[in-house]
Design goal:
The chain has helices spanning 2-14, 58-71, 81-86, 90-97, 119-134, 153-161, 199-202, 218-231, 253-264, 273-285, and strands spanning 16-17, 32-35, 45-50, 75-79, 103-106, 142-144, 166-168, 177-178, 194-196, 214-215, 234-239, 269-270, 287-294, 300-308, 320-325, 335-339, 347-348, 350-351, 357-361, 364-372. By secondary structure, the chain is an alpha/beta fold. The strands form four sheets. Strands 3, 4, 5, 8, 9, 10, 11 and 12 form an eight-stranded mixed sheet that branches. 38% of the residues are buried.
């Protein structure tokens, strides 16, 4: 009797796993399932963010939105609500920039060193920015500390308590790569960044001369991209003023265009910072349920699976990618999956580079059926 209970207990454990576990034991007659680290099993992730008071620079206004529109880039712009409202730029954000596919992260009501503020003052600054963005239909989930000043624990706690899921900072001494292979957790309120400054601008500012997390051009960016791919990590790039060569210009247009080509050549998931945060938090919370259905002779007929992260679907709605290895009896067949209540809308499982098959579904608890044809 004890042996029977142990077997039942082991089977129950194998039917519900986390994102860091394999979905079931791996005998030859089962479908094994695991989580891809990145969307559609990409080798790594890169986010392009633009951290500048974009309502002020006429040349920058003409350049970057056009590049975004032409390249169909998923990018994020900062939103400093006090400045933006003083200059009526909230209408530009609402009516023009969002139509180009640009998203926004919060940058405070005042562009200020939050580490000089008390917890209450920093939280008030965060909340005023958040509420301003919500008033025009933007729900910011990520905050970026002006100047990277989010070193104090109280500043980080204020960002979390203001409702942000993550916050980006700038530490010139730390690695810019988030979630390398050997690391399974993220410090959500200390996300690092790789700063993009041309050398002439960097040399004008003493505090920018430490160069571990600053690059001046595409040639210097490429090694970081390669290392990011090797680590299977996430790299956040932070640009500022893009435009003519003068003291206001922080990066050259030609290098921005070359950066885009270099990023795309890496088989990288080019993703908005906010979406990467949502994806990682979903995957961290996701639980996979899997059930093998067999006929009377024990032959596998279908697999029923579902993902559930237990998080609000109005925020956490990005699909996660599952990697599947076929049982021996399904080898050479086409695998398809469909929602259990809609068998007329199947999707074919797509091969990944390592030979596994990919299925991308939202972690909303809905069941899917996997069959072989």
């Amino acid at each position: 009797m004890k042996l029977l209970c142990a077997v039942i207990f082991a089977y129950c454990l194998s039917s519900c796993v986390t994102a860091t576990q394999v979905a079931s034991v791996s005998p030859s007659d089962t479908l094994t399932v695991s989580f891809a680290k990145w969307h559609k099993n990409s080798s790594a992730a890169v986010s392009m963010t633009f951290d500048h008071t974009w309502g002020r620079m006429v040349e920058w206004e003409r350049t970057v939105p056009k590049i975004v529109a032409d390249s169909v880039l998923p990018v994020d712009f900062d939103y400093t609500s006090g400045y933006i409202y003083d200059n009526n730029q909230h209408l530009l954000a609402r009516d023009t920039l969002q139509k180009l596919g640009i998203a926004f992260f919060a940058h405070g009501h005042r562009h200020i060193n939050n580490d000089t503020l008390s917890y209450e003052q920093a939280k008030a600054n965060f909340l005023e920015c958040r509420d301003s963005m919500r008033s025009i239909g933007i729900n910011p989930l990520v905050y970026a500390y002006p100047g990277g000043y989010g070193y104090k624990t109280s500043t980080q706690r204020a960002a979390e308590d203001a409702g942000f899921l993550a916050a980006r900072m700038f530490d010139p001494l730390e690695s810019p790569h988030v979630l390398p292979n050997a690391v399974q957790t993220v410090d959500w309120y200390r996300l690092p960044t790789l700063m993009m400054f041309r050398k002439e601008f960097q040399d004008l500012h003493d505090f920018l001369r430490v160069n571990r997390t600053i690059v001046n051009n595409t040639a210097q960016l490429v090694p970081h991209l390669r290392e990011n791919t090797r680590l299977g990590a996430w790299l956040i790039l932070t640009y500022h003023m893009i435009g003519p060569t003068d003291n206001e210009n922080t990066y050259e247009v030609r290098d921005l265009l070359a950066d885009i080509g270099a990023i795309r050549s890496q088989r990288t998931w080019l993703v908005r910072m906010q979406d990467a945060v949502v994806y990682l938090r979903e995957k961290e919370a996701a639980r996979l349920s899997i059930e093998h259905r067999r006929n009377a002779s024990g032959r596998l007929e279908k697999v029923i699976l579902s993902l559930n992260d237990g998080l609000p679907d109005d925020v956490y709605s990005l699909p996660l990618t599952l990697l599947m290895t076929s049982p021996v009896q399904w080898k050479g067949k086409t695998l398809r999956a469909y929602p259990i209540n809609n068998p007329n809308s199947p999707q074919m499982l797509v091969p990944a580079e390592d030979g596994a098959l990919m299925l991308t579904i939202p972690p909303d608890g809905k069941q899917y059926v996997v069959i072989a044809e």
